[in-house]
Design a protein that fits this description.
Layout (H helix, E strand, L loop, with lengths): L3 H7 L3 E6 L11 E7 L3 H13 L4 E4 L5 E3 L4 E7 L7 E4 L2 E5 L4 H10 L2 E2 L11 H7 L2 E2 L2 E2 L4 E7 L5 E5 L18 E8 L1 E2 L2 H18 L19 H7 L6 E2 L2 E3 L7 E3 L5 H19 L8 E3 L3
Length: 299
C-alpha cells in the first residue's frame, strides 16, 4: 500500500490516482497510484529513496510515446521527466539538454543555431530521455551517432557521466534498458551547417513522415522492431492485415507497421491485435515480429 502522506512530504508535485491515458500517445491506460512531474535530479533522488525505503515500486517515463499502459493501471509511483526538466544550452556545435525536452522542441532550438545532424529526430514524438533509452532513430540516423555523453543516476544511486561508446548503444537498445537507471541529461556533438538547408531537410522529413504515417490517430509509433532482412510494415501488409481491427485497435490503413487507437481501444485490444499480427505473419512467412512498444503496468 502506497504511503501517500510520506510521498507528499517528499515532493510537492505529486498527483494521486492519475489516469495514464492522458499521458501516453496511445491515449490508453488505467490509473497510476501516484504521478510526479519532477523538476530536478535531487527530487528524483528523494522519490527513489522514499520508494526503496518503503518498498514501493516506481518507474520512469517521458512523453509516453513508446509504451502501452495496462487497463489496470500502474501500482506505485510514476516519475515523469518532462517539462520540469527541459533545459537546453547550446555552445558552438555542442548541445547540452535535459532529457525532459521534447525532441521536436530540441530540433527547433538546434535549427535556430544552424547546427546539422539532428534533423532525423525532429519528428520523433518523444522526449530526449525516451529517445536515448531506446536509441531512437529515423531516416538513417540514430541518436548514438550524435551523442557525446550522457549523465544519469546509476543503479547504485550515484550520478555519473559516460561517453557514448560506454553505453552499449545498438539498434533500439542501450545500457539503460537493463533497469535501475535514470537518464538526466546529455551532450550532443553536431556540425555547423546552413540554416536554409537544415530547415529544408527537416521539412522534407516531416512531409515524408506525415505522408506515410497515421499521425492523426493515437498510436505508440512503430509497433514492431525491424526484423532482420524485412520491413515489419511490409510483412503485415502482405499478410493481408492492413485495416484489420480488434475492438478499438486497428492496423493502420496508412502504414501497416502502426497499430492505432481508432477510438475507445483498451490495452487488451492492442495486445490481442499484436498477438494476432505476430501469429499471422509467422504462419505466412516464418518471421517472428518483436514488439517495439513496451507494455507497462499491472497485468
Amino acid at each position: 500500500m502506497l504511503n501517500r502522506e510520506g510521498l507528499a512530504a517528499v515532493t510537492d508535485n505529486v498527483i494521486f490516482d492519475e489516469e495514464m491515458s492522458g499521458h501516453t500517445t496511445f491515449r490508453i491506460g488505467g490509473r497510476a497510484d501516484a504521478f510526479v512531474n519532477v523538476k530536478s535530479a535531487e527530487e528524483i533522488e528523494r522519490i527513489i529513496s522514499f520508494c526503496k525505503d518503503s518498498d514501493t515500486p516506481y518507474m520512469i517515463m517521458g512523453n509516453g510515446s513508446n509504451m502501452l499502459v495496462s487497463d489496470k493501471g500502474i501500482r506505485g509511483v510514476v516519475i515523469h521527466i518532462g517539462s520540469g526538466m527541459s533545459d537546453c544550452r547550446i555552445n558552438g556545435a555542442e548541445v547540452y539538454a535535459e532529457t525532459g525536452i521534447l525532441m521536436s522542441s530540441l530540433a527547433k532550438k538546434i535549427l535556430e543555431k544552424s547546427l546539422a545532424g539532428f534533423e532525423f529526430a525532429g519528428g520523433i514524438p518523444g522526449t530526449l530521455g525516451g529517445g536515448i533509452y531506446m536509441n531512437a532513430g529515423a531516416y538513417g540516423g540514430e541518436l548514438k551517432d550524435i551523442i557525446e555523453n550522457v549523465t544519469f543516476i546509476a543503479p547504485d544511486g550515484t550520478i555519473r557521466t559516460e561517453a557514448s561508446d560506454k553505453l552499449d548503444f545498438g539498434y533500439r537498445q542501450s545500457i539503460f534498458m537493463r533497469g535501475g537507471y535514470v537518464i538526466l541529461s546529455c551532450v550532443l556533438k553536431l556540425k555547423k551547417g546552413s540554416y536554409d538547408d537544415i530547415k529544408a531537410k527537416m521539412a522534407e522529413l516531416n512531409t515524408r513522415r506525415s505522408d506515410k504515417q497515421p499521425l492523426s490517430q493515437p498510436s505508440a509509433g512503430s509497433t514492431f522492431k525491424r526484423a532482420e532482412g524485412y520491413f515489419a510494415g511490409k510483412l503485415i501488409q502482405d499478410a493481408g492485415l492492413m485495416g484489420y481491427s480488434l475492438g478499438g485497435a486497428m492496423v493502420s490503413n496508412k502504414h501497416a507497421g502502426f497499430v492505432v487507437n481508432k477510438g475507445g481501444a483498451t490495452a487488451k485490444d492492442v495486445l490481442d491485435l499484436i498477438k494476432h499480427i505476430q501469429k499471422t505473419v509467422y504462419d505466412k512467412f516464418g518471421v517472428k515480429l518483436e514488439p517495439e512498444v513496451r507494455l507497462i503496468g499491472e497485468q
